[in-house]
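Revision sheet: structure tokens.
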Amino acid sequence: MSLREHLKDLCLLPAPSGYEQEAGRYLKRFYEEIADEVRTDVSGNVIAKFACGKKDARRVMVFAHMDQLGLVVRDVEPDGFLRVERLGGIPEKVLPALQVLVRTEAGAWIPGIIGNKSHHITAPEEKYVVTPVKQMSVDIGASSAEEVHALGIEVGCPVVYRPHFEELGEHRCAGTSLDNRGGCAAIMEVGEHLAQKHPEHYDVYLVATVQEEYNLRGGLVAAQQVRPDWAVCLDIVLTGDTPQTRGMLPVKLGGGPAVGMYNFHGRGTLNGTLPHPLLFEKTVEAAGKLDIPVQRFVSTGILTDASYVQLVEQGVATIDLGFPCRYSHSPVETVDLRDLAQLAALVEEMVREMPAGAVFERCYE
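Predicted:
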């Protein structure tokens, strides 16, 4: 299957943080066909190993999160409406009149909508106000709480944007979970190539992590098991190429993959990632060899799993590589497939060509 086909399949799977079963099952089955070893862990990460065949080989972990943001049912009202809370960074202004799926406790997905107050009876002062999520409700067509419970929906059940994948022109597509199924699809492409020609210097671990959208949980757990010498995180980078974002960032769709030069949450965790110097050097070197353009990304208010992976044990040399994505965290995230293909090629070149004796420790001589 092509990268485009894998991406479409992944985007159509509902898999919010903590409920990644559908995406995890898809990825595990894929890697079982091509990897030397595949395992899952308590958190739900899928870890695939491609061995170089050398005893006591050093390790590299390439990872992307497979979960998506969503909502969670916090109350079932007597008349059958569901009240919800955010699960991850859902922008509240995109929610009214949205189609969603609600997961039952048995794992079935029930369609619903987030109702929007009729325009005809909306007061003028309300028309330009973002409704808080606690004031919204999900309508699944039930008339009573008993009907809702009979379907298997209880407090705590997750809710996601109704999955869709739409091709836009020849090279671009829009969908509900391109953050970060795009990263997963790129890693699958790397895996297919490593299966055909195994790495020479490092055991390569390709990892689909969980609960990234819920406070960056899975990558840390995976890294504690793999114990990589170096690691590459694949995730989205934000663009500044739409009428609403021009001048905010230099990244554009179709401009090639991007290297994260700086990210910082700015609140809460106060965490972030600066690229390891050697990995940045090797990224630029590999891009030059392949004639792939590399954009640079700097932003506050955004984090990836790399921010915690870099802190495992005595430290892991880590870098963020990404693909440009418009309209992040909305139901219409948009990417360019050429950026994803170039990202996969760049990562493969890096894991193949990193010298076996590379020194990752910082030297101040």
